[in-house]
Structures are given as C-alpha cells and as structure tokens.
Amino acid sequence: RNNIRLRQQARLIPGYILLILWCLFIIVMLGWIVIASLSTTKEIFSDNLLRSGLHWDNYTHVIRNGHLVTAFLNSLLYSASSVFFSILICAPAAYGLARFKFKFSEAIKRLLVIGLGVPGVMIIMPLFSLVSALNASNSKITLIVIYVVTSIPFSTFYLLPAFTDISDSYEEAAAIDGCGPIRTFWTIVFPLAGNSITTLVIFQFIGKWNEYFMALIFANKSELRPVGVGLYQTVQSMMQSGDWAGMFASVVIVFMPTVIIYLFLSDKIVAGVTSGGVKG
Fold this sequence. Notes:
The protein is mainly α. The protein has 13 helices and no strands. It is globular, with a radius of gyration of 24 Å.
C-alpha cells in the first residue's frame, strides 16, 4: 500500500513543480511592479530599484492627477451595481428553474448554455446599434444594464446546482409555519446557498472590475471611464511624459482591490466552487 501511495504521489510531482514555478513567476512579476512603483524612473531604467529610498510621491502624484481616481470610483459603481442587480435577477430565476418543472424550463436551461457559448465580441455590434437607436450611449446606467444582461446566462447557470442541492424539507417546514414562497426563498433558501452566491459575487465583481472592451465602447467619456480604460489612458500619458514610476504606481492602484479580494476571500471562493461536489 505504501508503494502504491508513493507511486500516486510521484505522478503528481510534475504538476506540483509547474504550479510552484507559476506561483514564483507571478510573485516575482508582481513584486517587481510594486518595487518599481516605489522607485524613480531613472532607477527603473538603470536597474537600481529603491536605491534612493521609497518614493511614495509616485502614488500621491497619480491620486492628485484625478483621472484614475474618477475611474476607480466609476468601476466601483459599475461593479457593485451590476453584481447587485445580477444576483437580484438570477438568484430567483435559478431557484425557479431548479425547483419547478414547467413547459419551457428545459428549453430555458438550454438557452442559458447557448448564451454561455456566445463570445462577447459577437454581440457588440447589435448592442451598439440598439444603444444608438435609443440614444443611450455614454451613460453610466447603460453600461450597468449591459453588464447585468450579459452576466445573466453565467450567473443563473452557476446558481442552478446550488439550489438543486438544497433539501425541499426547508420549504415544507416554512410552508407549515405559514411562510409564503417569496419570503421562504429570501429568508431561508437564499442564505443556505450563501457559499455559491458569495463566490459568484466575487467572480462577477472581479470580472466587471477588469472589463475593458464594452467600457471602451459604451463609456468612452473621461468622466465615465472605469479603471480598465482609465488605466490605459493614464499609462499612455505617463509613457509619453516619461513618468514610468507613476505608470507602475497606477497599475498597483488598479490591481490592488483584486489582490485584496483574493487574499481575504479565497476560502469563500474555494467553498463556493466545491459546494455540492461532496454529499452525505
């Protein structure tokens, strides 16, 4: 038995090596960017990082610039609003598809799968034509609505197993106590799917935070740009002015929320992804 276990572990060694190398590569790259953001432009090009000390003024210069701060707040609004409305729509939809069998329930599930397979690039032109016809371009509400609508297939399909795995006995007990279906869902069933919902919220928030293409088309004014587009504009201006240290500081400011989310909520992500995988 020991020999068999050793052989099984030996087969995993190449995978462990690749994983360790990948982690080291990411750590080194992120560490270099952070160190470069605290150095001067001259030190970056002379490969003498941090020789003159920590230059926190790179960050204060970026913040005083204002454009990236506005983009940061815009992304926070877009991401939080779209995730909130997405959960508000998709959680009841997934619950209904998981619990109730009606005429078109299977067809709706198939449509969700088809929606998952449609690349975002393919719907850009129809969306642009529709938004132009409605005269709703360059609006924060328009971009939030687009984010919500485009996230419906994935969000609904992701939550289906979570509600399917919840026992019907909770709803039966709530019905005996006189609790209506809507109240039962929001007060009992919805919290029971908390791990999956938390994971979905994290994935959707990060996805919308890093989204670039749709924001570039539908929110291209300076006061509407999220961090993806704002960072690109900031990087371009700082490269032209030669402020490479400020450019790296901008990059750190933008990706820091994502890193913080993964550091503090990684256990929630794992719990949500693996929920339903083991029963009993």
